[in-house]
Amino acid sequence: MFKLFSIVEEKESPINGKIQIVRDLQGARIIVGGVSQSGWLVKSIWNKALKKVTSNKKQVTRVLILGLGGGSAAELVQKYWPGTKITGVDIDPLMVEMGKKHLQLASIENIEVVIGDAWEYVETVEGKGIKYDLVLVDLFNGSKIPEKFYREKFIRSIQKILAPGGVAAFNHLYSFIEKETAHKLQKKLRNIFITVSTVLPEANIIFLCFNK
After folding, report:
1. Which of 48, 60, 63, 97 could disulfide-link to 133, CB 3.0 to 4.6 Å?
2. Which fold does the domain 41-210 belong to in CATH?
3. What is the pLDDT of residues 74-130, one digit of tens each?
4. Could you say which of 90, 92, 133, 138 is catalytic?
């Protein structure tokens, strides 16, 4: 019988739980808790958002990705802004390992991979006065975003590390059960950023937040 997909590898992470590498006709994906974390589906989600960003920001020299995962968003950053310096932060080294082994993370140029907590990293760069043209916030643990990343203090820290004219993109699930939480996040973002627009790819919503 023909299989629509196959599980290529499966490992247990103390942080994310069971991590699966699933391959289907469109390519490989990293799945945690039934939700794609990296791979072709995640690329299609971020592609729609980053296309919109390119219409506003032709020059991007420094990018921070919070929730690097297997590196799918970083691939797109390299595609749209070749030569840009990318820093990717992920708390789970196994997720990064899977991205290097099964996806294209190992082939991305000009990327610094940091294993650690996203908020702690943001606080560190904020203290050093480092600024980014683009910050991608993709902080899922399975289908959930840890509560601390909804806090106003974290969002304000993201705003502070943006360069003038910078953009922060917050990814959130947007099925029926996640809509209320997504709208609460949207309200917080609008209280902090000058302009907030939305992109609706697949079953997600991405909030594009523009700095002064």
Report:
1. 60
2. Rossmann fold (3.40.50)
3. 999 999 999 999 999 999 999 999 999 999 999 999 999 999 999 999 999 999 999
4. 138
